[in-house]
Amino acid sequence: MPELPEVETVKRGLAPVMEGRVFTSVVLNRKDIRFPFPENFIKRLEGKTLTHLGRRAKFLVAELSSGETLLMHLGMSGRFSIEEGSWPADSGNTNPKHDHVVFTMSGKEAPLIVYNDPRRFGFMELLANGEQGRMAELGPEPLSNSFNGPALFSALTKKKAPIKTALLDQRIVAGLGNIYVCEALFDAHISPLRKSCDLTEAECEALSTEIKTVLEIAIKAGGSTLKDFAAVDGALGYFQHRFKVYGHENDACPNTDCPHEIQRVKQSGRSTFYCPHCQI
Ligand SMILES: [Zn+2]
Question: Which residues are catalytic?
Answer without folding.
Answer: 2-3, 58, 270
